[in-house]
Amino acid sequence: MQDGSADMTDHTETAKHVVDALSILTVIGTLADMLPSVAAIFTIVWTSIRIWETETVKRWTGRTGGSNAVDQ
């Protein structure tokens, strides 16, 4: 006859795994909800850099004539 402590430990470990899984799902859900905002910020920054580096903007800002390893 068992004393029941092994069964209680198994249930406790199972409960811990269930709570861990719910925690992970909560984190994923939070990140998924935040992801569009983060992606929008990175897109704005990247597009701004690309526009800043165009030849037209370089002429407007007087940054023409500089050495560029890509051009060489």
Q: Care to describe what's here?
A:
With 72 residues, the chain is mainly alpha-helical. The chain has a domain at 10-56. It has helices spanning 5-52, 55-60. The protein is rod-shaped. The N and C termini lie far apart (84 Å). The mean pLDDT is 82.
Task: Furnish the topology, listing elements before pairings.
Layout: H1 5-52, H2 55-60
Which shape, going by the Cα principal axes? rod-shaped
Structural class: mainly alpha
Portion of residues in beta strands equals under 5%
Percent helix: over 70%
Concise synopsis of the structure shown:
The chain is mainly alpha-helical. It has helices at 5-52, 55-60.
Descriptors:
mainly alpha, 72 residues
